[in-house]
Design a protein that fits this description.
The chain is α/β, with parallel strands linked by helices. It has three helices and seven strands.
Length: 141
């Protein structure tokens, strides 16, 4: 299996997360095959790592499981403090060792949740959160 991030879900936010991944992936090195799961999605393939919603308990087909959440601070990646301003929206992202913000222009198609899903995949792939946020902010802000 190729070392890349697979977004396994059909919601608008998952489709946008995949699009964001494609937009920033050339600037971030992915060393693992990672599945980012939408709630309720069942795996049928083994991946090096999985990123899933904090409340989800997937049938583990990976040794490494990372969790994401909106507002649940014990997840590996937590999105909170959603703000709207005149020209942008933002979401703060928190991991055990770092906190940073992604600014999303008001006219951008990307959503706060799509950013959280995309970031979770990169974290599960071993990319540092500061590096991820720097690249995403440079590409969409």
């Amino acid at each position: 299996m190729e070392n890349k991030i697979y977004f396994l879900g059909n919601s608008k936010d998952f489709i946008l997360a995949k699009k964001l991944y494609e937009q920033v992936s050339d600037d971030l090195e992915v060393k693992l095959s990672v599945a980012v799961l939408e709630s309720g999605y069942n795996l049928d393939t083994k991946y090096d790592a999985i990123a899933c919603e904090f409340s989800q308990k997937p049938e583990v087909l990976s040794e490494k499981v990372y969790t994401y959440s909106v507002g649940q601070s014990n997840a590996d990646i937590c999105g909170f403090n959603f703000q709207k301003r005149e020209f942008s929206r933002s979401v703060d992202l928190f991991s055990s060792s770092f906190m940073g913000r992604v600014n999303i222009p008001v006219n951008s198609e990307f959503t706060e949740k799509s950013v959280i899903y995309c970031v979770s995949g990169f974290v599960a792939a071993g990319v540092s959160l500061p590096q991820i946020l720097k690249v995403i902010n440079s590409k969409i802000s």
